[in-house]
Amino acid sequence: MMRGLAQRLRQPGLVTAPGVFDMISAKLADGLGFDALYMTGYGTVASHLGYPDAGLATYSDMVGRVRQIAGGTRTPLIADGDTGYGGLLNVEHTVRGYEAAGAQAIQLEDQEFPKKCGHTPDRRVIAIADAAAKIRVAAETRSSKDFLIVARTDARTAHGLDEALRRGEAYAKAGADILFIESPETVEEMEKIAGSFDLPLLANMVDGGRTPILGKTDLEQLGFKVAIFPVTGFLAASAAMASAYRHLLETGSSKDWQGTLYPFNDFSALMGFDKVWAFERAHADYTNPSQGAD
Fold it and tell me: What per-residue string of b and e applies to 26-42 under the rule 16 or more CB within 10 Å gives b?
């Protein structure tokens, strides 16, 4: 039976959620025993469309990826829902769609449309009342309170930490289950965030981003409940592929490449070929009937 994210949040300890962006990353992470997976918007848009995370992906693009990943894994999925893809009616539609697709939490942010990745410049936020209304609609729309609303504010970079904290308080009152104050720039800012709210708090650990990368113990001691690592997987995979492809280009072969390859047989098993082969063995009499039989 699938573990519940809402139940896990009531238990001690940090929930570490790796960023997944396609079915290979999702299946790899799913088999390792994480408490949650995080469907990164940045990585999913890049992987699926080859575009920057700049408001170019549609609701249809993203809900399809939610359905694929949630349907192909057993670990609770937190899914990036951007701005809800429009106004309040769009937020209602998005929440219903993500919940039906199998996510256990949706992340909604307060940026203007088109949004931008949270660790890039020139992000602008909508009015606090409008953003709180989106969170309120999301909380009212879900069919189960175990489907969690992650409220994110991007106000820190352009308007300062105090405005971001003020928005976090408004979103908590509007019905958010988890607060996500994006892009604090020092440990001291993270400490202030953690001391400002009673709700579970999410830390966004973006390798190469604006926020310091902290260890598990440090995050727990500060008071964060969830830590997402949205870019770690695709940056690691991209580095490995770039190295392998460069070697192929330079030498004409994979022979003598010094990187690490995932074993082919293990990868075939990860993708489910063992079940295919077992099925074919079980139905061999139907697919390969004896020649000359009456």
Answer: bbbbbeeebbbbbbbbb
Each domain of the chain, given as residue ranges in start order, spans 5-231, 238-284
Read off the pLDDT of residues 198-250 as tens digits, 9 standing for 90 and up: 999 999 999 999 999 999 999 999 999 999 999 999 999 999 999 999 999 99
CA within 13 Å, CB half, 5? 30
HSE-CB for 126 with a 13 A CA cutoff: 21
Angle at which helices 232-251 and 41-49 cross, to 10°: 30
Rounded CA-CA distance 39/212 in Å is: 21
Question: What's the N-to-C CA distance of the chain in angstroms?
Answer: 47
Residue with tokens 């936020």: 125
pLDDT in tens, 150-167: 999 999 999 999 999 999
Please give the Cα distance from 82 to 70 (Å, whole number): 18
- Cβ 224 vs Cβ 201: under 8 Å: yes
Encoded tokens for 26: 């999702």
Classify domain 5-231 at the CATH superfamily level. Answer: Phosphoenolpyruvate-binding domains (3.20.20.60)
Whole-angstrom distance, CA of residue 151 vs CA of residue 138: 10
